[in-house]
């Protein structure tokens, strides 16, 4: 079939992805091969493909495709996360648009709407990943709220509760007033904002004295239960034990002393609101203070506030400041920069709030997970994240796992009173426990009331590497024994605590081993100005639009061209265009090579004249395969891509093909042609993990293929010994060819003029094997050795080798002298810089042997060049 003049990615991508799926190339079942397993970080069902997904999933696909070609039984498990808060918010908004309020429907009715929404929109992001070329095993797609995975969550909850690791109690939590639910610390995003610090005077009971405190939340004074000072603060020592009066409401609160207070900070006096501040909560426990919760679930004031009942907290802030000022309690106001916590999901300011919630005791769970990273059982790339992990795990707090939502796995606890409950996997088991423990055989199911809250979304996703293989419900099934532990996790560092740490804990708790061997933390995708890409800033392109415009391969390579291992990616559209240009380059090479005709030789023997470029390119290919092996192991994925890119663009296209291509109206030697096709295939194998679509198309266009013979499952190039001496020799040959081409340009020598190249005697052996290629690419008449420098010749050097091109026509002696003098000046300056190093005693004594040897070689080369240049000038 004729090859189209231009590469059309949209047609080719759809064709090949469908064939890969139809032939189940991505599907995996346990067999005798060694597995290579990756579980996808499950994107939220509310999500759509963004640049972060693009980076993360492209890296995963590169690793999986390469492993598949290396002969591993590659299994990349896809799936989505039910995302309790985000999804519930979407469904609530959807119902609101229909004129339905959440509180007006039953839980069952709400969940029906939620499942309908999930079925309609929840799989969008997975379909988008297919456009990217993701080679997931789609037959294994999982969802964190599907029946088996929900049953796994319930089983784990009961298990941990029975072990005493889950408990219920009043604790200070982060409260989301919009979602009306508790949040973990990791779900709170802190932002620096301009704020105000209000200085308020509290009267001392039965005294004319006052004590001044400073607060950023003046409305919270309505929940004050003490004022705290440092025990050594002479300003307040005599007030300890007395009572202060809360402004506006005159509540009497004790003045207490505690070393927690910093005397030098602010006024040295601290208002204590135990129900609305984490640090105040600890002080409240220590000093047995009253806990006064003044907020409703939606952050409006309740009856305990006494004032502004039913009004929103921020409206109250304005009103109470005005009233405090009017009544003389407000001393002054300062502008400050303050760290304000926002809900990650609803983007509202969170409130610290005392609440009855369910918690997991983390210290015992964290111990083996901390050791696993410390001793290298689980490897982090880059390793710098070990310190972040270690610090967080050392100060880990109990995990608040309850969320006041309907969408999610409902907590498996059944109550027979407000304080008495029974945890079981279902209501029937809970009833049996209740009857046994209370001795009341008359209890019935209708007497039980299940906990309304659901578990935190992360409580399901921490089981992900186990639960996707049904390893919680069936701990000894074939899949879990074969695929677990998984090989690699690719994720972002901002969920190292949300997810990575917890998965490691779950692995050791429920499987007694690690969940994965290696974790690669990608960087954050930023724009060319260094700003994090976001819809709010309008600096994040839609990946699907880019794929449609440039093709998936161009998009994938564009992202990875600038993705240094573990560091942030500075994304620029020019990189995607570079990816597209690379596709076009490869396509044009295909058209070039397929346009050649071979001479039909039956013999496979290669002529000696063709061996040099073939042996050289084989050595270059071997070197890239070997060099990229280590880079893959260290997740230097961008460097791997650049190495392969240079091998194709520079070595194969610019050098090898130029060396072997036939002249006009000539045929190429058949063995050389076949070897060239072999090389092209090998290059497509190397680039396939990065550019799966165009490489598959070219693979099938180069030669006839048997049915089901796909590049996606072809054998990856194996490691071979590298002919390093040949590579070093060829570098000099290429320098020679480039130098001759430069001379033609500098001296205005026409391309049609055949030149003679003279090589100083005994220095031409390196170049002998490439004589044919040098003559061809430099358009020479001949190459001859010469015992001495000829008259009226252009001289030049390659390293320490001397060459001459005799001139028969007009020759500008002064221009040549000027050129040689300029080069001589440079070489003398270069030699001087080298000698400074070699004459530096500290450098000579401390430099590694190889570095020192390199500098001595530089000295020898420079001295030889200077000598040759001086002799050339004498001749002129």
Number of strands: 29
Mean pLDDT: 91
Low-confidence stretches: none
State the end-to-end CA separation. Answer: 60 Å
Beta fraction: 15-25%
Q: State the helical fraction.
A: 40-55%
What would you call the shape? elongated
| Number of helical segments with 4 or more residues | 28
Work out the radius of gyration.
37 Å
Major sheet summary line? 7 strands, mixed
Structural class: alpha/beta
What do these coordinates show?
- The protein has 876 residues and is of the alpha/beta class.
- 44% of the residues lie in helices and 17% in strands.
- The protein contains 28 helices and 29 strands.
- Strands 7, 8, 9, 10, 11, 12 and 13 form a seven-stranded mixed sheet that branches.
- A hairpin with a 5-residue loop joins strand 7 (188-204) and strand 8.
- It starts with 8 loop residues before the first helix and ends with a helix.
- The model has no long low-confidence stretch (mean pLDDT 91).
């Amino acid at each position: 079939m004729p090859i189209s003049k231009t590469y059309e990615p949209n047609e080719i991508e759809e064709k090949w992805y469908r064939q890969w799926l139809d032939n189940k190339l991505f599907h995996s079942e346990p067999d005798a091969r060694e597995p290579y397993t990756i579980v996808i970080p499950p994107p939220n069902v509310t999500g759509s493909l963004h640049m972060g997904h693009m980076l993360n999933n492209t890296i995963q696909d590169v690793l999986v495709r390469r492993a598949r070609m290396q002969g591993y039984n590659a299994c990349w498990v896809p799936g989505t996360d039910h995302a309790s808060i985000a999804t519930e918010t979407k469904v609530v908004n959807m119902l609101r648009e229909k004129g339905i309020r959440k509180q007006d429907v039953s839980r069952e009715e709400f969940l029906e709407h939620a499942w309908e929404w999930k079925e309609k929109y929840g799989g969008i992001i997975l379909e988008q990943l297919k456009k990217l070329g993701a080679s997931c095993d789609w037959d294994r797609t999982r969802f964190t709220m599907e029946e088996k995975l929900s049953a796994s969550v319930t089983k784990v909850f009961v298990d941990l509760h029975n072990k005493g690791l889950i408990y219920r109690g009043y604790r200070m939590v982060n409260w989301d007033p919009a979602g009306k639910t508790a949040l973990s610390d990791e779900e709170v995003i802190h932002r620096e904002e301009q704020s105000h610090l209000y200085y308020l005077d509290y009267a001392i009971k039965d005294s004319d004295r006052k004590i001044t405190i400073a607060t950023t939340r003046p409305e919270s004074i309505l929940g004050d239960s003490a004022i705290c000072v440092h025990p050594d603060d002479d300003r307040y020592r005599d007030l300890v034990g007395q009572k202060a009066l809360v402004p506006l409401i005159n509540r009497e609160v004790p003045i207490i002393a505690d070393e927690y207070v910093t005397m030098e900070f602010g006024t040295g006096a601290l208002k204590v609101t135990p129900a609305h501040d984490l640090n105040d909560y600890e002080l409240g426990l220590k000093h047995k203070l009253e806990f006064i919760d003044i907020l409703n679930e939606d952050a409006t004031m309740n009856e305990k506030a006494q004032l502004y009942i039913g009004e929103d907290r921020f409206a109250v802030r304005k009103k109470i400041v005005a009233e405090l000022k009017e009544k003389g309690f407000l001393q002054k106001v300062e502008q400050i920069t303050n760290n304000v916590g926002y809900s990650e999901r609803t983007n509202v300011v969170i409130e610290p709030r005392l609440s009855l919630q369910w918690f997991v005791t983390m210290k015992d769970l964290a111990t083996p997970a901390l050791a696993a990273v410390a001793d290298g059982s689980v490897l982090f790339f880059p390793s710098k994240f070990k310190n972040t992990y270690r610090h967080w795990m050392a100060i880990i707090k109990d995990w608040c796992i309850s969320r006041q939502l309907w969408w999610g796995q409902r907590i498996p606890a059944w109550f027979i009173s407000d304080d008495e409950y029974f945890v079981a996997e279902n209501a029937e088991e809970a009833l049996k426990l209740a009857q046994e423990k209370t001795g009341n055989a008359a209890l019935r199911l209708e007497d039980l009331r299940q906990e309304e809250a659901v578990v935190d979304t992360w409580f399901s996703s921490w089981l992900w590497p186990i639960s996707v293989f049904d390893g919680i419900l069936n701990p000894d099934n074939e899949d879990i024994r074969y695929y677990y532990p998984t090989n690699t996790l690719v994720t972002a560092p901002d969920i190292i605590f949300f997810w990575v740490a917890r998965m490691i804990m779950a692995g050791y708790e429920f499987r007694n081993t690690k969940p994965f061997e290696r974790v690669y933390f990608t960087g954050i995708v930023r724009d060319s100005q260094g700003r994090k890409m976001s819809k709010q800033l309008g600096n994040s392109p839609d990946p699907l639009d880019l794929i449609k415009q440039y093709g998936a391969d161009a998009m994938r390579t564009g992202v990875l061209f600038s993705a240094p291992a573990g560091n942030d990616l500075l994304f620029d559209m020019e990189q995607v265009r570079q990816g597209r240009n690379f596709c076009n380059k490869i396509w044009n090479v295909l058209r070039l090579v397929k346009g050649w005709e071979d001479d039909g030789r039956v013999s496979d023997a290669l002529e000696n004249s063709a061996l040099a470029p073939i042996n050289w390119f084989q050595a270059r290919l071997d070197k890239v395969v070997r060099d990229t092996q280590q880079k893959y192991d260290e997740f230097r994925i961008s460097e791997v891509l650049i190495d392969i890119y240079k091998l194709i663009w520079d070595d194969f296209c610019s050098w090898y093909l130029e060396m072997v291509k036939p002249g006009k109206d000539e045929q190429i030697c058949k063995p050389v042609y076949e070897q060239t096709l072999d090389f092209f295939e090998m290059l497509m194998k190397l680039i396939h993990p990065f550019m799966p679509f165009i490489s598959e198309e070219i693979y099938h266009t180069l030669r006839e293929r048997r049915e089901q013979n796909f590049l996606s499952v072809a054998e990856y190039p194996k490691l071979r010994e590298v002919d390093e001496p040949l590579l070093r020799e060829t570098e000099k040959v290429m320098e020679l060819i480039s130098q001759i081409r430069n001379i033609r340009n500098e001296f205005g020598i026409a391309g049609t003029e055949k030149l003679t190249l003279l090589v100083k005697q005994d220095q031409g052996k390196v170049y002998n094997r490439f004589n044919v290629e040098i003559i061809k690419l430099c358009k020479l008449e001949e190459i001859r050795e010469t015992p001495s420098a000829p008259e009226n010749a252009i001289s030049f050097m390659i390293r320490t080798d001397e060459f001459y091109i005799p001139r028969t026509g007009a020759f500008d002696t002064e221009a040549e002298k000027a050129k040689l003098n300029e080069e001589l000046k440079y070489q003398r300056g270069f030699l001087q810089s080298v000698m400074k190093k070699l004459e530096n005693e500290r450098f000579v004594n401390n430099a590694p042997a190889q570095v020192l040897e390199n500098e001595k070689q530089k000295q020898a080369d420079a001295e030889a060049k200077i000598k040759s240049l001086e002799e050339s000038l004498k001749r002129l």
